[in-house]
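task queued by scheduler; priority normal; single chain, no ligands, no partner chains; default sampling; output format set to structure tokens
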Amino acid sequence: MDSQGKIQEVEIKEKIWTRDFVLICLANFFIFLGFQMTLPTLPIFVKELGGSDQMIGIIVGIFTFSALLFRPYAGHSLESKGRRFVYMFGLCIFVLSVGSYSFIGSITLLLIMRIVQGIGWGFSTTASGTIATDLIPPKRRGEGMGYFGLSGNLALAFGPSLGLTLAGVIPFSQLFLICGGMGLAALLLSTRIRYKQVEESPNKAAVPKFDIFEKSAIQPSLLLFFITVSFGGIASFLPLYAAEKSIAGIEVYFLVYALFLMLSRTFAGKIYDKKGHLYVFLPGTILVFIAMVLLSWLPNLTVMLIAAGFYGLGFGSVQPALQAWAIDSSPNNRKGMANATFFSFFDLGVGLGAMVFGQLAFLYGYNVIYVTSAGSVMLSIVLYLYLLIRTKNRNKNLAN
């Protein structure tokens, strides 16, 4: 009876789909839905306000740089003030900033509120990833983070298409109120989560200084950076690029991308848990590279949708594996900072990509964006192989 009880206890401990994990996934779905609805519609809104391609790049980029700047504060606050405070604080700012777009009539005000939105996004997404990490059994972290990522992927499946569809039938003022309402739903769900207590570090008194990253998470985060540069080019300029080429169906692109992203979440995390990042990273990045090459060519809708499938499958495999790697590498009392570091590099890639690509689009045209993105993904592959070889050599030397 005792042995059976122990077996049942282990099974309970290893369970992923608890009440609180479901709630954090639902909250994550709603905030990502509100965010994804604005992603393809903001460039159109900026054009309506009289902005240029360069201004689109700045407005998209300033959001991610704002999130990047405040993520270290979010990471430290998660350990010092607790998960609940940081998460709800970020969600409140997100709701207020996105809702304010309904009353904005100038580029300057939009730019300011994008900075504010970035702060809310930085706090809320750093917190949600850490909360999910707390709730997932360590031995199933890759699988669990994949499932958690599915909540954002479901939002991605519907958000861009829903945003673009609504933008065609209702004013932007109503659209942005709906987007803010999605964030409000996330906020209400967040009040029902039972948050885990922050673990006290045995060396807490010896580490009072403020730092901006967790060094054990740098390697996977840097690899992610070179990949998410491509995401900035897709999110900011693909709708405009497709329109320039007279290719209809950009809504379908985002749907196909999201479906393949979700498909990857069902198996990539399990592969990471059983075999490690090598078996996930290289196949995934090669698929992302092929997608960028196809988008730089982009002769028709069929090629665009094939690229969407490759990109979704590749990015959906790589991102949770790299996040699990970053978390697994960090001490227990630094999981919040590891998530902050990971998402900071994510933001930096998207923001830098959007800003640089805005200038490239202005000077050379949209297709150069995706040629450059392919080069950035290739850099990630080269860097990964270098790190792999260096680690193997170091292990050999230690063994000798």
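post-processing summary
- Residues 367-399 form the longest helix (33 residues).
- The mean pLDDT is 87.
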